[in-house]
Amino acid sequence: MRKEDMIRFVRRTMPKLTIDTSEIKTNGWDNDILIVNKQQVFRFPKTDQIRDQIKGECVLLRQLEQKKPALQIPRYKLIYEGKTLRAITYPFMSGESLNEHPVDLRRNPENAQLLGDFLMKLHQIAGGFLPTRHTFCYWQVLLESLRKKVFSALRDEECQAIEDVFTRFLNRYTAFSKTKAVIHGDLSASNILFDQKTNRISGIIDFTDGQIGDPAFDFAGIYWNYGPEYTKEVLSFYQTDESIDEMFDRLSTFYGLQPVFHELLYSVENNEPIDHTQLKRFMELKQMIS
């Protein structure tokens, strides 16, 4: 969506809001973002599917707010035109996305505690209003898509490594699928805000992919970016009735390695070059599997 169209929409639907400054972010997969005066954020869903998911996202955030997480979360207001949901808006949250300004979270021990506390409270929500997306079929389709679209661009050993990781996971999926909770679904660097002044995580955004799923999945981005030892540190602040060792096993053998699969598909489908740095990272983490 063009910046001019977003600004025109805001002026039409919120005529009392004076727009002095504005910036946009349109590189996300699901939404276009307009930030007005560094005070108000407007998020425009790119597809009808994302519009439908936003409604469940709003319920999730209201329930999470009652848990009083230590980190900021968005407070949404839905904006309709007629019966069509066109956008959501919420007050600007302090901090910068870790995707735009990478920081080593390990430099401040408090960050592990903040992440552990946030995920523990999120996973305690009763989420009967949310769907389950990460089914056995979902992972089978992902593997088949990689075979058809990506494998021809990879080395044989990389293809075999992906096959091995999927085979091990799918063969044990029945046991894994018994553990369910409300999950963020996309706790990647782009959705974690960091305050440079305090050297700590300040907030979590974009709950569009919120769903019922395996709680271990939400630690995938942490494992991918910071490795097993830091992930264990975060898990030390996470309380659950499930065995932490069993969660870590699912994380270290599959969930923590799978972020690269979606990136590979996105690159091929959008005619972009494959990031071989990420492939190298995948192979390094794969070698850690016992």
From TrEMBL:
Residue ranges constituting the Protein kinase domain according to the UniProt record: 19-290
Q: Which Pfam families match?
A: APH
Q: Which Gene3D superfamilies match?
A: 3.90.1200.10, Phosphorylase Kinase, domain 1
* Domain of life of the native organism: Bacteria
**InterPro entries in alphabetical order:** AGP_Transferase (IPR051678), Aminoglycoside_PTrfase (IPR002575), Kinase-like_dom_sf (IPR011009), Prot_kinase_dom (IPR000719), Tyr_kinase_AS (IPR008266)
Q: Which UniProt keywords apply?
A: Transferase
Gene Ontology MF terms in the entry: ATP binding; protein kinase activity
Name this polypeptide is given = Aminoglycoside phosphotransferase
Q: Which organism is it from?
A: Sporolactobacillus terrae
